[in-house]
Amino acid sequence: MARLPYLDYHTLHAKSRPILNIIKLLSHSTATVDHWADVGNAQFKHLLLSARDRELIILLTTSKFNSTYEWTHHLPLSLKAGVTRKQQSALEASAKRNDYFIGRKYDPEAGFSEKDLVLLSFVETIIQQPEVSDELFKHVKDKFSDREIVEIISLQGFYYSFSRLTTILQCDFDEWAKAKL
Asked: Of the candidates 17, 72, 77, 155, which lies 20 to 30 Å from 46 by C-alpha distance?
């Protein structure tokens, strides 16, 4: 059970949106909830990053920060975007180890491309360290545009925040997600 009551987003705000439990909890912050929801929507409609890259970032972040809520919500989305079940398993395994992608400790049977591994190493470095080496950044620049690099960093930060909100506030699964467990 959540540590705070779920507020009715639609009663508090005129905008029509899906009513996820995380948004209900964020509704306690009336000054920022619409901004969070707008950024979340933009990440699904307006990023230059591919849906698959987006889902790799989200799954790695939510795995590392033990957000079962966000992880569960993104499993079906990631499959639709082209992430395989073996890759989901490898991303889930990353939660228990530092340098999982950086140190190439993942199962090679997962079938990550070289671009995937650059992306996942970059995101894992962002999660684990305050800086990224010039060498890694060069590899990232070779694979991603400047806009995509900013989107990677901001997407990871967004899901860090959502992961912490869901774990600290003990956000319950939305009804539709419970059916998939």
From this structure: 72
Question: Residue 139: inside a domain, yes or no?
Answer: yes
Asked whether 180 and 76 are in contact (CB, 8 A), the reply is yes
* CATH number of the domain that residue 104 is part of: 1.20.1290.10
Question: Does 180 have pLDDT greater than 60?
Answer: no
CA dist 78 and 55 (Å) reads: 5
Q: In this structure, which amino acid lies at residue 103?
A: G
Q: What gap in Å lies between CA 158 and CA 77, rounded to an integer?
A: 17
Range of the domain at 123: 51-171
* d(C-alpha 32, C-alpha 139), whole Å: 35
Look at the pTM and tell me if it is higher than 0.85. Answer: yes
The total domain count for the chain is 1
In a domain, 41, yes or no: no
Q: Are 94 and 101 in contact (CB under 8 A)?
A: yes
Give me the pLDDT at residue 11, please: 59
Q: Dump the DSSP string for 94-145.
A: GGG-TTTTTTT-S-GGG---HHHHHHHHHHHHHHH-S---HHHHHHHHHHS-
